[in-house]
Specification:
Layout: E1 6-14, E2 21-30, E3 33-44, E4 48-49, E5 54-55, H1 60-85, H2 92-105, H3 111-125, H4 128-148, H5 161-173, H6 185-205, H7 230-238, H8 244-259, H9 263-268, E6 274-276, E7 282-287, E8 294-298, H10 301-317, H11 328-342, H12 350-362, H13 369-376, H14 381-385, H15 392-399, H16 402-418
Antiparallel strand pairs: 1-2, 2-3, 4-5, 6-7, 7-8
Helix pairs in contact: 1-2, 3-4, 4-6, 5-6, 8-10, 8-11, 8-12
């Protein structure tokens, strides 16, 4: 907003308790609009110079009051300029509120203090997999503070919608890894985690009155989870390989297609994670590394066949885990070779096996969503619902026989019309 006039002046008002003394007020005038605020200074009426808006005299007390008035005037002007520079609404009231708000809010806890405390508390509460992404978000926030602010920090009361906007822009333009910029849903997830940290500070710690970023929106694009269809699984099962490493990774991947185990759980799987019921059903029961949530999976024969092979190997070689240890990166590199060899269109990573279990193996074969949630070890059913997307195959199955049903209803309708 463009302003034509702006001034700061001082005036006095008689005290009600003592008519010989007066309180000093600052008056902000912008385009004819006036707003006043108290300076918290009181003087004798006779010592005020109304023409100069100053206290008369040369005593130390007088000099101190006049210096305080000069500082107030300077601070108000600074707030006025800041509102102009930020393109915000500039009125006598917004300038006064900015000055008063600054005096009241710029104290207390700072953002870097919050990030350090969040790390201290939640690093122990969450598993490494659960805290990993928060660690990256916190790293982005620390880099942003160093980049954006001269002091490399801000008070929590200063973290608002504009801060969130600038932070989002920073993530998009200043990636931690130059070869791997953060885009799309990755940016949205960082903003989501940042907002949760601020909500924790406001609601649980009471370090700030409110989370001013709570309504800031960085929408996530809904994406379909990549999974193999049954034809791809059959291709994978029937493809023969010679290299022992490739054979191992193929079987490790297929085991997850039939159990839904994530890579960390597959690597940690041991004899202690199995239970045998009286009816002969073998259960795999273990706590997820990421969420510490229990997942209970009845073993399908397709998975049991693979597990039997590696359980026997583990006993033979004295290994504590069912599967030999291997790095996730090495597995994913090998899966690209397997993908090309099997002519599978879907880019294969180990996590695709978990998606395949949820959608292709379980949901498409009538397993209820709540049951899949328990087997996957999801804390919320909304996470499992991501896998329950509608695809073309489901549409075709749902539409099958619809024309026949319509024809029957047409025949009944014609008979009713004749009668």
């Amino acid at each position: 907003m463009d302003t034509t006039t702006f001034s700061v002046s001082f005036l006095t008002r008689k005290c009600k308790a003592d008519k010989k003394r007066a309180d000093i007020y600052a008056r902000i005038t912008i385009d004819g609009e006036e707003k006043e605020l108290s300076t918290k200074e009181q003087i004798s009426i006779s010592s005020w110079d109304s023409a100069k808006s100053r206290v008369k005299g040369n005593s130390i007390e007088v000099k101190s009051i006049n210096e305080h008035l000069d500082n107030i005037k300077m601070d108000i002007k600074e707030k006025y300029r800041k509102l102009l520079d930020d393109g915000k609404l500039v009125t006598a009231e917004t300038v006064r509120d900015a000055y008063l708000g600054n005096q009241a809010e710029l104290k207390g806890h700072k953002l870097k203090e919050l990030l350090a405390y969040y790390t201290k508390i939640w690093k122990l509460k969450l598993k490494d997999g659960g805290f990993k992404n928060y660690k990256t978000t916190i790293k982005y926030l620390e880099l942003f503070l160093n980049y954006q602010f001269a002091s490399a920090d801000v008070f929590l009361s200063q973290v608002d919608g504009q801060f969130a906007t600038d932070f989002e822009h920073y993530i998009r333009t200043q990636p931690i890894k130059l070869h791997d910029p953060c885009k799309g849903n990755g940016v949205g997830k960082h903003i989501q985690r940042f907002k949760r940290i601020m909500t924790w500070a406001a609601d649980d710690l009471k370090w700030v009155k409110e989370n001013k970023c709570s309504k800031y929106s960085c929408k996530l694009k809904k994406s379909k989870r990549k999974k193999l269809d049954m034809i791809d699984v059959i291709k994978l099962e029937e493809k023969k390989f010679i290299n022992p490493l490739v054979i191992y990774i193929k079987e490790l991947f297929l085991n997850s297609c039939y159990t839904g185990l994530a890579f960390a759980e597959a690597m940690a799987l041991s004899e202690h994670d199995f239970e045998w019921n009286l009816d002969g059903v073998v259960w795999c029961k273990m706590y997820r590394t990421k969420s510490d949530e229990l997942c209970s999976i009845p073993m399908l024969p397709s998975a049991s066949k693979i597990l039997k092979k590696y359980r026997e190997e583990a006993i033979q070689y004295g290994r504590s885990t069912i599967f030999p240890k291997i790095a996730n990166q090495q597995v994913n590199r090998c899966l690209k070779i397997i993908q090309e060899a099997c002519e599978i269109r879907i880019p294969m990573t180990f996590h695709v096996a978990r998606h395949t279990f949820a959608k292709t193996v379980a949901l498409k074969n009538g397993i209820p969503l709540e049951t899949v949630q328990m087997m996957l070890g999801h804390t919320k059913i909304t996470t499992t619902q991501i896998y329950a997307d509608v695809d073309e195959e489901k549409i075709i199955n749902d539409m099958a026989g619809l024309e026949e049903k319509l024809n029957k209803k047409r025949e009944i309708g014609r008979l009713l019309l004749k009668n």
